[in-house]
Amino acid sequence: MKEERIEELLRVFNRRLLATPTDFHRYLYYEIDWEDKLIGIKGPRGSGKTTLLLQHIKKSFHGNELDKVLYVSLDNIWFADNSIYDLVDYHYTHGGTHIFIDEIHYEPQWQTMLKNLSDNYPAMYIVYTGSSMLEIDAHEGDLSRRQAMYELRGMSFREYLEFEGVVKYEKYTLEDLLAHHIEIAIDINSKINVLAYFNKYLREGYYPFYKSVRHGLANRLLATVNQVIENDYPQIDEVTVSTIRKTKKMLMVLAGCVPQLPNMSQLYHELETDRNHGLKMLWALERGGLLLLLGGKTKSINQLSRPDKIYINNPTLMFALTPHADIGNVRETFFMNQLSQSHELCYPKTGDFMVDGKYLFEIGGKGKGFTQIKDIPDSYLAVDDTEIGRGARIPLWLFGMLY
């Protein structure tokens, strides 16, 4: 491969690197061991995966060291008639030591490709990002044992406060929060009007790109939804145009009724599909970062089960899909979204959520009482419109400080 063939990629890389801010880093930036030879980062569109890569490059490589680094995105039209294998070979034979590959799912045989690159260039450090739909197949490429895999979610309320330049706090564990929520809430409320920022976060703060499109956020989010369903979904699974159309319709129908579980038989009938294909579309929306499914976990694509409850993935997306979203639904969605980052949630017989098989939560407004969960051990209320809690009544916004 001649040098002039990659000049276009280098120009794109340099422009994006210069434009990358370094004053705020997502939580995952500090958790990645960048010394691993093969690193995968998956997550929903708009969560900041590309920025994460470029921030690491900008901080870790300076001057002539940048000649050893190459960043590319496989959705670039350059790859329509150029090979990633030839590119990596050129980079390696010209002294390259690190390559960062964005949008890996645009390579149909991406697992095999990564295995080959890892085998053929053992001194090369490879970091890649891909859709949250990516599933590592232990039988294809044998990547599961040779790579470090991470997942980047959207911003927590804690990160939003830092991103806005309001206040910076370290994350709390759930156990710390349950035991010391009064002291924590007093400290934070002494510094900021927390409820005002919390209400803004719910409407705008889950996706880091909101700052650049504050007045067009809903349209940007709808465009992101289309990209996930129309571009990412077909790259990961073999689906027809008809399935893509039905999947979009399914999301819009669900947006109008979640988190109550709709009549699934009626939904499948309306979509002119059967239960099996309907469940596949449902789980594709979950994998794509557009839905959260409570209960009904699946072991494999051939053992899909009906969830106990369906949520839009996060409140910001919910407001884009349904501008007049019910506040009760928004509260439950926020709680589910923030805790599902690192905790196991299931649908209990009583209350709204069972967390880690131990803690029972009921979600509501500041007037919510313990009637439904009284006398149940380790039960709590997560209440909205409340700055500081008391006893087992914990402010809802505090659950946004967990990551």
Residues in β-strands, percent: 5-15%
- What general outline do the C-alpha atoms trace? globular
Main pleated sheet:
5 strands, parallel
Radius of gyration: 22 Å
Widest sheet, order of strands: 2-3-4-1-5
Mean pLDDT metric: 93
Q: Please identify the structural class as seen in this structure.
A: alpha/beta
Distance between the termini: 44 Å
Total strand segments: 12
Q: Residue ranges: pLDDT <50 for 5 or more in a row?
A: 296-301
String of helices and strands? HEHEHEHEEHHHHHHHEEHHEEEEE
Q: State the helix count.
A: 13
In which range does the helix fraction lie? 25-40%
Describe what this molecule looks like in 3D.
The chain is of the alpha/beta class and 403 residues long. It has 13 helices and twelve strands. The strands form three sheets. Strands 2-3-4-1-5 form a five-stranded parallel sheet. A five-stranded mixed sheet has the order 8-9-10-11-12. The chain has a two-stranded antiparallel ribbon with strand order 6-7. Helix 3 (84-93) links the parallel strand 2 and strand 3. The longest helix has 20 residues, at 217-236.
